[in-house]
Amino acid sequence: MLLLKVEQLGGEFMATAVEKGLKKIGITVSKPILAIICIIFGILVIVFPDLLQWIVGLFLIIQGILMLTDYLELRKQ
């Protein structure tokens, strides 16, 4: 039961992080579309377990770039 709650919190954090990152670069995605994208990627990870490494790697690279550009923009001001 506790593990399920932790996984739900992790999923909410991931969705929030993706939504904030997309807004930073000027892309807005509705929650139902974001949910469908998450479901598709979840199915792909189950079918192709090696794909998980690529998805997590891309997510971390994109988040790192967004955080770095945000920091540099704040530093300019």
Secondary structure topology:
Blueprint: H1 2-24, H2 31-47, H3 51-76
What does this structure look like?
Helices cover 86% and strands 0% of the residues. With 77 residues, it is an all-alpha fold. It has one domain. Helix 1 crosses helix 3 (51-76). The longest helix is centred in the C-terminal third of the chain and has 26 residues, at 51-76. The termini are far apart. Residues 1-9 have low confidence and may be disordered.
Quick take:
By secondary structure, the chain is an all-alpha fold. Helix content is 86%, strand content 0%. The chain contains 3 helices and no strands.
Give the total of domains: 1
Structural class: mainly alpha
Portion in beta strands? under 5%
Query: What is the gyration radius calculated from CA atoms?
Result: 15 Å
Distance between the termini: 47 Å
List the uncertain runs. 1-9
Looking at the structure, what is the overall shape?
Answer: flat
Determine the mean pLDDT. Answer: 75
Number of strands: 0
The largest β sheet comes out as: none
Amount of helix:
over 70%
N-to-C SSE series? HHH
Number of helices: 3
